[in-house]
Design goal:
With 217 residues, the protein is mainly α. The chain has 2 domains: 7-73, Homeodomain-like (Arc Repressor Mutant, subunit A), CATH 1.10.10; 94-206, no CATH class. It has helices spanning 7-16, 27-45, 52-58, 63-67, 73-92, 104-116, 119-131, 140-158, 165-185, 192-206. The chain is elongated.
C-alpha cells in the first residue's frame, strides 16, 4: 500500500490534538496514523526493537486491524521509508524533470536546515541505514537502491556546475550521513548546519568546475 503524501506533517499534527483517540478515522487518516506511530517507534528502538503490537497500541487499535492496512511488519517498514523519501524530495524540491539548477548549494543547504528541524525523521533514516547493513535485514535492498538513485538525483542538481557531478554528489551524501550520525549522538554539542557548512564549502571549493550554460534573458 502506498502511503499518503506528507504523512508526518498531518499525522503528527493530529497526534497533538486532544480527542484523537475517540474520533473515527478515514482509511487514509488511519494509514497515516500507523505510519506516524511506526516512524517514531522505529526511530527510537530500531526495526528489531519494535513489534506490530507496539505500533497497534500506539494507534489504539488491534494487530488484526493494523494488518488490514499493512500485510506485514516488513510492508509497514517500506511504507515508512517511502513516506520519508516523499517528504524529503517534496521539501527539497529535487526532481530529475527539472532543467539546469542555477544554485544547487542553496537547495542542499535548505535540505540540511529542514533535516535539522525534523530529528525524528533523521533518526529513523540513520538507525535503519546502519541496522540494514546485513543482507538479511528487510530494508537492506531498499537502502542499497536508495543510494543508486539518490546519488544521480543530487548529481542532477550539480550538472552544469562541476566536471564530475556524480563524484561530488557521492561526497556530499557521505558528508550528510556522517554529520547526521554525530548530531544525533551529541545533540547538545553539535548543530547540524554548522557541521555541514565547512565540509560542503570544502567540497564545492575543491571540485573541478565548469562554466554553467548561459541563462535566457
Amino acid at each position: 500500500m502506498e502511503p499518503p503524501q506528507s504523512v508526518l506533517g498531518t499525522a503528527l499534527d493530529t497526534a497533538a490534538r486532544p480527542g484523537r483517540r475517540n474520533r473515527r478515522f478515514t482509511p487514509e487518516e488511519r494509514s497515516a496514523d500507523i505510519i506516524r506511530a511506526a516512524t517514531l517507534l522505529i526511530a527510537e528502538r530500531g526495526y528489531y526493537g519494535v513489534t506490530l503490537r507496539a505500533v497497534a497500541t500506539e494507534c489504539n487499535m488491534t494487530v488484526a486491524g493494523l494488518l488490514h492496512y499493512f500485510k506485514s511488519k516488513d510492508d509497514l517498514l517500506i511504507a515508512v521509508l517511502e513516506n520519508r523519501d516523499k517528504v524529503d524530495l517534496n521539501n527539497a524540491r529535487i526532481s530529475k524533470a527539472e532543467g539546469f539548477v542555477p544554485n544547487p548549494r542553496e537547495r542542499l543547504d535548505s535540505l540540511v536546515k529542514r533535516n535539522a528541524r525534523q530529528p525524528e525523521l533523521v533518526r529513523l533514516y540513520t538507525v535503519l541505514n546502519s541496522e540494514s547493513m546485513g543482507s538479511d535485514h528487510p530494508a537492506h535492498a531498499y537502502f542499497s537502491a536508495r543510494y543508486d538513485y539518490s546519488i544521480p538525483l543530487i548529481a542532477h542538481l550539480l550538472t552544469g556546475h562541476f566536471d564530475d557531478p556524480v563524484r561530488v554528489a557521492a561526497q556530499l551524501i557521505a558528508i550528510m550521513d556522517g554529520i547526521q550520525m554525530q548530531w544525533l549522538r551529541f545533540p547538545d554539542r553539535a548543530d547540524l548546519f554548522e557541521l555541514w557548512t565547512p565540509l560542503a564549502d570544502a567540497v564545492f571549493r575543491t571540485a573541478t568546475t565548469v562554466d554553467p550554460p548561459a541563462q535566457p534573458d
